[in-house]
TrEMBL record:
Species of origin: Malus baccata
Cellular component GO terms held in the UniProt record: membrane
Name of the molecule in the record: Cytochrome P450
Main location: membrane
Topology term for the membrane: Single-pass membrane protein
Family: Belongs to the cytochrome P450 family.
Cellular location(s): Membrane
Amino acid sequence: MSWLRKLEITSPIRFLCLLSSLFVLLALIKLFHNIWWIPTRIQKLMALQGIKGPSYKLVHGNTKEISSMKQESMSRPKSFSHDIVSQVHPHIHSWTKTYAIIASAETMLEKWKSHEGKEIEVFEEFTLLTSEVIARTAFGSNYLEGRNIF
């Protein structure tokens, strides 16, 4: 308790003020850690793995962007089709077009064009496509490069 004497805390009121100030400081540090440090760190780690997305915005996240996209979607006339994702969840539709991995599907379709008029083993093709998407998402390289390395 010598540190208390060094601070010359003589009354219980000063002690309570110091204790409450310390509590408030710790609460602010925890708040900063939870709403800024963790999301920013996760975004950087995911970017290092090749996973990109909309940038993090403090406190409200992407809710303003989502709201404006939904309002715009609701103001447009609705079409009678099975493609309702662009109308119900326009932010997911937009972000998928912007940040999704389509190179794997394009590679598969180019390969299929060379098999025009011939049978294609769809099970093997989709297994390869799934492996390709997982490899690109998790490791940032395609499946065939990873298979050659390992």
